From TrEMBL:
Keywords, ordered alphabetically: Competence, Membrane, Transmembrane, Transmembrane helix
Protein name: Competence protein ComGD
Annotated localization: Cell surface
Phosphoprotein keyword on record: no
Coiled coil: none
NCBIfam families, per the entry: ComGD, IV_pilin_GFxxxE
Length: 147
């Protein structure tokens, strides 16, 4: 008595489709993880920027922000005389710091020492933070990169 079943060709087709689906999952997860890391970094960066500007406004200390380009690729937030407020954030591997820029928020006013642009780049876009000279407010521009 014959039992119904799959032929060898049908089995190979199903297995090949399954292999392709399994191989696609890690690439999708990797890009989602990179995106999550970048969004988390920008959230931390904006929070530290606001905290250090507010600290300079409220105290008798300047706040310094030092941007270090690759290969180190990190940002240092420091307050003169207050080591407990020093923070260092490292950029995720998928993100690159484009501009070398030092920013100082002046004591009592919280205004930046100079206006400027802080630019980051990932695989898909360029992200630019424009710092306004008088208020220290910033705006964010995201520009897609050409392929």
């Amino acid at each position: 008595m014959k039992k119904p079943g799959y032929t060898l060709i049908e089995l190979l087709v199903v297995l090949s489709i399954l292999c392709v689906m399994i191989l696609l999952v890690p690439t999708v997860q990797k890009s989602q993880f990179e995106h999550y890391q970048e969004e988390l970094f920008f959230s931390d960066f904006e929070n530290f920027l606001k905290v250090h500007q507010t600290n300079a406004l409220a105290t008798d200390q300047n706040s310094f922000i030092h941007f270090i380009k690759p290969p180190i690729n990190r940002i240092e937030f420091k307050v003169a005389g207050q080591d407990d407020l020093t923070r260092i954030i490292t950029l995720p591997p998928s993100l690159e710091l484009v501009t070398n820029y030092d920013l100082v928020f002046k004591k009592h006013t919280g205004t930046p020492s100079k206006a400027g642009r802080i630019a980051f780049r990932n695989k898909k876009e360029k992200i630019v933070y424009k710092i306004q000279p008088a208020s220290g407010r910033y705006s964010v521009e995201r520009t897609p990169l050409p392929y």
